[in-house]
Design a protein that fits this description.
The complex is a heterodimer. By secondary structure, chain A is mostly helical. Chain A has a domain of about 45 residues. Chain A is about 75% helix and about 0% strand. The longest helix of chain A has 30 residues. The relative contact order of chain A is 0.18. By secondary structure, chain B is mostly helical. Chain B has one domain. In chain B, helix 2 runs parallel beside helix 4. The longest helix of chain B is centred in the N-terminal third of the chain and has 31 residues. Chain B starts with a helix and ends with a helix. The relative contact order of chain B is 0.18. The C terminus of chain B is likely disordered. The chains are: A mainly alpha, B mainly alpha. At the A-B interface, helix 1 and helix 2 of A face helix 1, helix 2, helix 3 and helix 4 of B.
Chain lengths: ~80, ~150
């Protein structure tokens, strides 16, 4: 190996990108779902509205992960 | 409009839009990569729809356990479990599809992104238009007597 190269990464870098793309949405979806369950436990009669809002929140958070998946193909 | 109605409407309109995108992307894919582009566009639109529909399905499924005392726990388990399962399934799918000879990765990736953005827009419009009422569930008479 060339002594000027400190780290030599081989393999498919897209897989690492996919993993990185899943971190943020994973945290986001976890918070959204967790907070919805918390709110439903406090006010069960509001469950309907909370779930619809959660659906929207998850859809937006997932979009980033989804683009990460698609970049796997584009990269 | 109930949650079920909103989610079903989002699913139906998402499916309609995915078909429209599949047709449009197939035409573009055919121009760019021939027959391989057409299959890639259809697979891409189907993956995009499936990816975003699983969330709605998981909520619909979780709501079947509404009467269960463990409903909040089950709800979270089903929704987050479906999310995780979806990611594992898609990781396997993209690893399998990437090197297939009948797939053009650029057309597939482009269709996935377009479908994802379009489906989120449809979800937003449906959710914003679907007026879910704030309803106080009436307590059953027998239950209220027990409380007093």
């Amino acid at each position: 190996m060339d002594p000027s190269i400190i780290v030599d990464v081989t393999g498919n870098l897209n897989t690492i990108g996919y993993g990185l793309a899943a971190i943020g949405p994973g945290i986001g979806v976890g918070i959204v779902a967790g907070k919805t369950v918390e709110a439903m436990a406090r006010q069960p009669e509001l469950a309907g509205r909370l779930q619809v809002t959660m659906f929207l929140g998850i859809a937006f958070a997932e979009l980033l992960a989804f683009i990460g998946v698609a970049l796997f193909f584009l990269g | 409009m109930t949650v079920t109605a909103v989610l079903k409407k989002a699913l139906v309109w998402g499916a309609v839009l995915a078909v429209v995108i599949a047709v449009g992307a197939a035409i573009i894919g055919n121009a760019v990569a021939g027959g391989v582009g057409v299959t890639s566009a259809i697979v891409g639109a189907a993956m995009g729809l499936l990816f975003l529909a699983i969330t709605a399905f998981s909520i619909l499924f979780a709501n079947r356990f509404q009467a269960n005392p463990l409903y909040p726990t089950l709800f979270m388990a089903v929704v987050l479990g479906a999310w995780m399962l979806k990611f594992v399934v898609f990781l396997v799918l993209i690893l399998l599809l990437r090197d297939q000879p009948w797939i053009d990765p650029t057309v597939l990736g482009g269709t996935l992104i377009v479908t994802a953005i379009a489906t989120v827009i449809v979800d937003s419009v449906v959710v914003l238009r679907g007026r879910v009422p704030v309803t106080q569930l009436p307590t059953a008479p027998a239950e209220s007597r027990d409380d007093s």
